[in-house]
Specification:
about 300 residues, alpha+beta, 2 domains, six-stranded mixed beta sheet, three-stranded antiparallel beta sheet
Length: about 300
């Protein structure tokens, strides 16, 4: 099967001006389900490592979105013969020189394995080894460069989030699956055996992505619990401040309260006055006795 390439050119995101003088070509893949020739985003990234999205007329097609990660389907677009696709990129430099062809080694799932086998059987085993080694070296260089670029462009490009370790692991698993499929083709494996290899690696990728979604759910739950704890801690601090204010404003005198004065009732007051009056009468009787020569003139007994 003859190889078909898609003509592309890197343009600026600000004024849509070309960033390179020449165009570059991307090898298309055959989709056995739809029967169309398609271009995958990762094949474009192998050549234009700073690419961000595709300009389809006035519409923008991002390379990687959350929906494509959840569906586990790599972004692609249909081959457009006699058309130069505009690739909006951050920087003008390309992995390969402008105008140079690039080949997409490997397959993407069971539906592309047969097409990959048909294309690779027409070439020699030596050429396949050289192509696979060149793609592997290009992939390792591009992954290193893309990691450094994601750190530098994270502030300026808010639409593309920085990939985590599980996303990178899934991408590496896909590369390993493609290499295993190529080795199986070279050794003369049947399409059924290649499909078994693809299904085995796809199962591992699905497990990684399932664990990733579970991790996201746990992180959201932990954030909610942490927020509830912070709110409760804030309320406790407010109550503590209120208690401290009440403690500072308490009465400072340590004196004992005065005992109420004892008041005499009317009976006790009358008895005291009668006692004083009796004492006065006794004194008067004594004086009268002295004056009258011992005769009592006035005797009063109270």
């Amino acid at each position: 099967m003859a190889r078909v390439y898609q003509e592309c050119i890197a343009v600026s995101a600000t004024d849509d001006s070309p960033l390179a003088r020449k165009t570059f070509r991307i090898e298309t893949r055959f989709d056995s389900v739809t029967g169309d020739r398609v271009v995958l985003w990762r094949d474009i990234l192998r050549v234009c490592e700073h690419a961000k999205y595709i300009m389809d007329g006035s519409a923008v097609i991002p390379f990687m979105t959350d929906s494509s990660l959840e569906d586990r389907t790599p972004l692609r677009f249909k081959h457009r013969p006699d058309t130069t696709v505009r690739i909006v990129a951050k920087k003008p430099n390309l992995t390969n020189s402008a105008g140079q062809e690039t080949s997409s080694a490997g397959t993407n799932g069971p539906k592309e394995a047969n097409a990959g086998q048909a294309e690779t059987t027409s070439t020699s085993g030596k050429g396949q080894d050289q192509q696979a080694s060149a793609d592997d070296s290009g992939d390792s260089n591009n992954s290193d460069n893309s990691d450094s670029d994601s750190d530098s462009d994270s502030d300026s490009d808010s639409g593309n989030s920085k990939p985590d370790i599980r996303t990178l692991l899934c991408f590496l698993m896909e590369l390993r699956r493609e290499l295993r499929a190529l080795d199986a083709m070279e050794s003369g494996a049947t399409p059924q055996e290649i499909d078994e290899i693809d299904s085995e690696y796809q199962k591992r990728i699905n497990e990684l992505q399932g664990n990733q979604q579970g991790l996201f759910r746990l992180q959201k739950k932990a954030k909610r619990i942490q927020k509830a704890w912070r709110d409760e801690l804030k309320l406790l601090r407010q109550k503590r401040e209120q208690l401290q204010k009440l403690y500072k404003n308490r009465p400072q005198s340590n004196q004992k309260p005065k005992e109420p004065e004892k008041t005499e009732d009317d009976g006790s007051q009358l008895e005291r006055k009668l006692a004083q009056l009796q004492k006065t009468v006794d004194q008067l009787n004594k004086k009268v006795e002295e004056m009258e020569g011992g005769k009592k003139v006035l005797v009063v007994n109270l």
